From TrEMBL:
<dbReference type="GO" id="GO:0140098">
    <property type="term" value="F:catalytic activity, acting on RNA"/>
</dbReference>
<feature type="domain" description="Pseudouridine synthase RsuA/RluA-like">
    <location>
        <begin position="94"/>
        <end position="247"/>
    </location>
</feature>
<keyword id="KW-0413">Isomerase</keyword>
<keyword id="KW-0694">RNA-binding</keyword>
<dbReference type="GO" id="GO:0000455">
    <property type="term" value="P:enzyme-directed rRNA pseudouridine synthesis"/>
</dbReference>
<dbReference type="Pfam" id="PF00849">
    <property type="entry name" value="PseudoU_synth_2"/>
</dbReference>
<dbReference type="InterPro" id="IPR050188">
    <property type="entry name" value="RluA_PseudoU_synthase"/>
</dbReference>
<dbReference type="InterPro" id="IPR006145">
    <property type="entry name" value="PsdUridine_synth_RsuA/RluA"/>
</dbReference>
<dbReference type="InterPro" id="IPR020103">
    <property type="entry name" value="PsdUridine_synth_cat_dom_sf"/>
</dbReference>
<dbReference type="InterPro" id="IPR036986">
    <property type="entry name" value="S4_RNA-bd_sf"/>
</dbReference>
<protein>
    <recommendedName>
        <fullName>Pseudouridine synthase</fullName>
        <ecNumber>5.4.99.-</ecNumber>
    </recommendedName>
</protein>
<dbReference type="GO" id="GO:0009982">
    <property type="term" value="F:pseudouridine synthase activity"/>
</dbReference>
<feature type="active site">
    <location>
        <position position="143"/>
    </location>
</feature>
<comment type="function">
    <text>Responsible for synthesis of pseudouridine from uracil.</text>
</comment>
<comment type="similarity">
    <text>Belongs to the pseudouridine synthase RluA family.</text>
</comment>
<dbReference type="GO" id="GO:0003723">
    <property type="term" value="F:RNA binding"/>
</dbReference>
<dbReference type="InterPro" id="IPR006225">
    <property type="entry name" value="PsdUridine_synth_RluC/D"/>
</dbReference>
Length: 312
């Protein structure tokens, strides 16, 4: 988390002689005792030039120097223009974008990189205020490592309707994935609940007590080492395609988090999971007409697919 530091220094008056350093700091700098103790334990305090313990005592004339970090809210939206985000469609209700790899949809704890909502704010887009402050207008998400088409709502009406459309599974979500090996059968449906991985909270897994998750796939191309699949999501769980394909023992090429072969990934020049959101179809919230938006493969995925084809 980035921080702005406020530097302060004060001498201990006679009336505070013998007090603990955290208690003296609380009175001198207007801090809570807990905050003062935290600053001492985190190394932000010097007492006569030396880092004290929070229970050390102060003497008249002692110099207390403190650096008070003003922590930045990790969920605050930071307006900035993000290179690589393309606007596919824009009207009064929605904006459809082509998200590049390496961009999160919205701020989250631990993520310090660029975000879609930050880009839209930086580019002057006004988006719906529905949802939590850091993800206002967001009705769907793509992983940081997944590229492709997604929609963000600009009006409250659009947010309400599209939120329900995603919830009621009436949105057509089409992905392309290159997976290791050849799924058997070549087309099918994976109906397996997904929950938080029991041993790694950054991962998900097929779990008996997970949330219902349904993935439909068909093989478009079968190559020597890998297959290109078209995938339709009936549900929209976090990491759904990655988890389901890994459970079939056919992880997305390059998806080291979910068991992909790093040697194969390197051979085909894949530095992230080979997964791209190709098409998004839904009923437009204003016109009621069915609309569809599409994204082509980004350069890195297109190049690796050609390498896979050439390896036959």
């Amino acid at each position: 988390m980035s921080e702005v530091v406020d530097q302060r220094a004060l001498s201990v008056p006679d009336g505070m002689a013998g007090e603990r350093v955290d208690a003296a700091m609380a009175r001198l700098f207007g801090l809570s005792r807990t905050r003062a103790a935290d600053l001492v334990s985190q190394g932000y305090v010097l007492l006569d030039g030396t880092a004290p313990g929070k229970s050390d005592r102060v003497f008249p004339g002692s110099l207390i120097e403190v650096s008070i970090p003003s922590t930045v809210d990790p969920l605050a939206v930071r307006p900035e223009i993000v290179e690589g985000i393309k606007i596919i469609h824009d009207d009064d209700s929605i904006v459809v974008i082509d998200k590049p790899v390496g961009v999160a949809v919205h701020p989250s704890p631990g993520w310090h990189g660029p975000t879609v909502v930050g880009h839209l704010a930086g580019a002057g887009f006004r988006i719906a205020t529905g949802g939590a402050s850091e993800r206002q207008g967001i009705v769907q998400r793509l992983d940081v490592g997944t590229s492709g088409v997604m929609v963000i709502c600009k009006s409250e009406h659009a947010y309400s309707l599209l939120k329900n459309a995603f919830r009621n599974r009436t949105v057509d979500k089409t992905y392309h994935a290159v997976v290791q090996g050849h799924p058997d059968p070549l087309e099918g449906t994976i109906d397996a609940p997904i929950g938080r991985h029991p041993k790694a909270d950054y991962k998900f897994a097929v779990m008996a007590d997970g949330r219902a998750s349904v993935t439909h796939y068909e093989t478009l191309e079968a190559h020597r080492f890998a297959s290109l699949l078209e995938v339709h999501l009936e549900t929209g769980r976090t990491h759904q395609i990655r988890v389901h394909m890994s459970a079939l023992k056919h992880p997305c090429v390059g998806d080291l988090t979910y068991g992909a072969d790093p040697v194969l990934a390197k051979r085909f020049g894949v530095e992230r999971q080979w997964l791209h959101a190709m098409r998004l179809g839904f009923e437009h919230p204003d016109t009621g007409k069915q609309v569809e938006y599409e994204s082509s493969y980004p350069d890195d995925l297109a190049a690796s697919l050609e390498t896979i084809r050439d390896a036959d």
